[in-house]
Amino acid sequence: MKFASTRIIAADIKELVGFYEMITQVSAQWLAPVFAEIVTPGAVLAIGAAETVALWQEGSAEPRANRSVVLEFQVDNIDAEYARLKDKVPLVHGLKTMPWGNTTFQFRDPDGNAVSLYMPATEGAKRRFAGR
C-alpha cells in the first residue's frame, strides 16, 4: 500500500489553494475547477471544494471542522521559512524545538487547519530523517 495524499475539503477552494501555493512555493495542478493538488517531493496535498463531498456521501466531510490533524512540511532552513512566513500566517506558536528533536513553528490555514513547518535539529532527528 502506498500513502497517496491528504485531502482538505475547502470552504473557498481558490483561497485555500492560493494559501498552500504561497506556503510551499509550488504551483497547484488543477485537475477540475473543484479539485487541485499541490505535489511536493514527499507527499501530495489534495484540495477539494465543499461541493465534492456529495460525490462520496452528502455530509461525510465538512470544511473548517478539523481540530485533530496537523499538516507537516519538512524544510531545509526553518529560520528562513519562519522569517518568510511569520507575518503572513496566523501563528499558533513561534519557533521551538520539540522533545523528538525537530525545530518547528505552527500556524493555521484560512480554514483553521493546523500546519507545522519543521526541520530536524538534534543529531538523533537528523539521523532519523537521513534515510527518508
Detailed description of the structure:
With about 130 residues, the protein is an alpha/beta fold. The protein has two domains: about 1-65, Signal recognition particle alu RNA binding heterodimer, srp9/1, CATH 3.30.720; about 70-130, 2,3-Dihydroxybiphenyl 1,2-Dioxygenase, domain 1 (Roll), CATH 3.10.180. About 25% of the residues lie in helices and about 35% in strands. It is built from four helices and eight strands. It has helices at about 15-25, 55, 80-85, 125-130; strands spanning about 5-10, 30, 35-40, 45-50, 70-75, 90-95, 100-110, 115-120. The chain has a four-stranded mixed β-sheet, with helices on one face. A four-stranded mixed β-sheet has the order 5-8-7-6. Strand 2 (about 30) and strand 3 (about 35-40) form a beta hairpin. It starts with 5 loop residues before the first strand and ends with a helix.
